[in-house]
Amino acid sequence: MAIADPARDWVHCDVMDNHFVPNLTFGPLVVGAVRRFTTALVDTHLMIEDPVTLVPEFRRAGADQITVHLEACHDPGATLAAVRAGGARAGLALKPDTPLAQAERWLAELDLLLVMTVEPGFGGQAFMPGMIEKIRAAAAWRTTHGARYLIEVDGGIAPETGRRCREVGAEVFVAGHAIYGQSDPSAALAALRQAIA
Q: Which one of 1, 83, 123, 130 is most buried, by most CB atoms within 10 A?
């Protein structure tokens, strides 16, 4: 993961349950292992149904920030409250087809808004250009309402797409294939950092 301030590194953990998304990854045990090996902020993205049931376990494992999907929560307000009650930063993710307006009642209390720039569930997908306007709208809403959330983008993020997202207000950039799928991951990360600086 790269963010607009290159002095701050985060580790982004994609948790998938093979129900909310068609893939299965890992749970709190792996997040706990990540926590033991880094001092970076552990950004845990829960792509799981009814995430409120597992929020305490991920927090105990060492997640500093827990992001849940609006579409996966029976009660988004209660789920975000559970994240904050455990002492973690609270994030809300939106799938590409979910309008920003559906999240407005919770935006003012967020630490992070994750705009998915692909359909969640699989790496290596192509960036969806239509998400640029959603990012722009999220940045405008934040300014108009004095909100404090960071805008994170995830999916198809590489130097060119990262630059475009940065120009319209994104500050946090999740990159997987664009870094680890390259022959020189260090050079790929440096190129992304330069593009979003």
A: 83
Strand partners, 6: none
* pTM score, whole prediction: 0.94
Of the ranges 1-5, 34-38, 80-84, which one carries the lowest mean pLDDT score?
Answer: 1-5
Strand 65-69 to 41-47 pairing: parallel
CA dihedral 86, 23, 112, 62 (to 10 degrees): 30
Q: Which of 17, 43, 111, 154 is catalytic?
A: 154
Q: Tell me what percent of the chain is helix, strand and coil, each rounded to the nearest 5.
A: 40, 20, 40
What per-residue confidence (pLDDT) applies to 192?
A: 94
**Catalytic: which of 14, 17, 43, 111?**
14
CA distance 17 to 25: 7
Structural domains of the chain, ranges and CATH numbers in brackets: 2-196 (3.20.20.70)
Beta bridge partners of 69: 93
User: Is 75 in the active site?
Assistant: no
Dist. CA 25–CA 97, nearest whole Å = 23
- Per-residue pLDDT of 102-121, as tens digits, reads 999 999 999 999 999 999 98
